[in-house]
């Protein structure tokens, strides 16, 4: 094997190795493991990705007869051949994931998307305003170039619910749902960022607000959450569930705190409500972290069914129970979306398939919010967002 082919093969093995570690992190973070386990997996992932390149270049490239010295794969020891082969196999899921990202298509039921982008930090007039947007605990990560952690995108999406689930009434009615998720109050971004997001949400004047979990990481900041959620409940009816980050804290107390400011908690339960003349079954699930998926009545007597699920991993349950629309958070848009490659990390059993955006699974629409914040203050090409869903029901 010539030198360049040897280098290319070893580099590809490094990419494949990284892909396996990313898969391990994504899958484990989709399950209800304790934080200590997840942190261990992340450390293992870091070591595995950093150590592998020098290891494989030395053992398969430089050790005689190495691939960088004119040797062939057949001349390597059985153990090194196995490691090299396993790493190269990681290119299969990697290529699949990148390819799927590039050929992704919006579902037909997504009729129109418009969005407005705000640079909340960039628009500050004074240093003190800037400080309030940055927050009181600004990690080094937040200062990375092109970090969008202090930006906000307000997106309007017009959806049409069609097919078996929608009752045909002869005329089209529209309900307006403002969906936001993953506030992760942790001190960065600061309170002023959330005040700005709350202002934008209030301006949307929806029929209802829905929040799909991961409210808080630092319980001492609950007053921030309380103020935001109180303001929203003054504007429209509000429904919420919790997420895996809330599950790690006193989640019963967090749930009660949201209910106390006028929100309706739908975790593990369902209710029927009416918006204008549209009857809607609204249910929530915080599985696999808190409780089980809710019992849903059959047959359906309502016009539409909407499920709030922190993770899109409950997709199959939602389809089985004839939901028309599933609203989720959790995946943060992948948080870091690389050029060409796309997102790499999303804590889902489906990997980055549902990183963020609108998808169709069988007859059901899925909208995954990128959320407003994250525990780690880093976002590239995954701008924080709030979304107004204008849902046409016919
Ligand atoms: Fe989250």
Describe, in plain words, how this protein is organized in 3D:
- The chain is α/β, with parallel strands linked by helices and 394 residues long.
- It folds into two domains: 3-101, no CATH class; 106-393, Purple Acid Phosphatase, chain A, domain 2, CATH 3.60.21.10.
- It contains ten helices and 15 strands.
- The protein has helices at 3-28, 35-62, 78-89, 91-103, 127-134, 191-204, 222-233, 244-247, 251-260, 315-320; strands at 110-119, 151-161, 173-180, 208-212, 237-241, 264-265, 270-275, 278-285, 304-309, 325-328, 337-338, 342-343, 357-361, 364-368, 385-393.
- It has a seven-stranded mixed sheet, covered by helices on one side. Strands 7-8-9-10-14-13 form a six-stranded mixed sheet. The chain has a two-stranded antiparallel ribbon with strand order 11-12.
- Strand 11 and strand 12 (342-343) form a beta hairpin.
- Helix 6 packs parallel to helix 7 (222-233).
- It is globular and about 75 Å long.
- The mean pLDDT is 94.
- Bound molecules: fe (ii) ion.
- Fe (ii) ion is lined by residues 182, 184, 214, 243, 245, 330, 332, 371.
């Amino acid at each position: 094997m010539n030198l360049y082919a040897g280098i290319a093969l070893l580099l590809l093995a490094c990419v494949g190795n990284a892909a396996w570690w990313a898969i391990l992190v994504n899958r484990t973070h989709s399950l209800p493991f304790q934080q200590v386990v997840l942190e261990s997996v992340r450390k293992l992932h870091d070591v595995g990705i950093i150590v592998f390149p020098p290891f494989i270049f030395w053992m398969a490239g430089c050790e005689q007869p190495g691939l960088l010295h004119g040797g062939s794969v057949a001349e390597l020891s059985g153990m090194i051949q196995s490691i090299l082969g396993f790493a190269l196999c990681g290119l299969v899921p990697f290529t699949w994931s990148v390819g799927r990202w590039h050929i992704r298509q919006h579902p037909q039921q997504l009729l129109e998307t418009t969005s407005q982008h705000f640079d909340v930090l960039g628009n500050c007039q004074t240093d003190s305003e800037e400080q309030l947007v940055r927050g009181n605990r600004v990690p080094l990560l937040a200062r990375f170039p092109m970090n969008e952690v202090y930006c906000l995108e307000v997106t309007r999406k017009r959806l049409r619910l069609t097919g078996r689930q929608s009752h045909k009434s002869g005329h089209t009615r529209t309900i307006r749902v403002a969906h936001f998720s993953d506030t992760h109050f942790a001190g960065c971004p600061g309170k002023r960022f959330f005040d700005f997001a709350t202002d934008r949400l209030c301006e949307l004047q929806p029929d209802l607000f829905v929040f799909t979990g991961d409210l808080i990481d630092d319980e001492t900041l609950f007053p921030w959450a309380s103020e935001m959620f109180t303001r929203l409940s003054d504007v429209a009816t509000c429904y919420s569930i919790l997420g895996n980050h809330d599950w790690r804290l006193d989640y019963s107390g967090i749930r009660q705190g949201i209910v106390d400011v006028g929100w309706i908690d739908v975790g593990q339960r369902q209710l029927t409500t009416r918006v204008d003349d549209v009857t809607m079954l609204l249910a929530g699930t915080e599985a696999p972290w808190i409780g089980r998926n809710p019992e849903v009545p059959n047959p359906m007597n309502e016009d539409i069914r909407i499920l709030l699920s922190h993770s899109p991993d409950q997709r199959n349950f939602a389809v089985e129970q004839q939901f028309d629309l599933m609203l989720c958070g959790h995946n943060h848009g992948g948080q870091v979306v690389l050029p060409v490659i796309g997102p790499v990390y999303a804590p889902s059993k489906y990997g980055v398939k549902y990183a963020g955006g609108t998808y169709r699974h069988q007859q059901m629409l899925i909208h995954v919010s990128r959320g407003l914040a994250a525990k780690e203050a880093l976002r590239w090409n995954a701008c924080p967002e709030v979304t107004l869903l204008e849902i046409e029901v016919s």
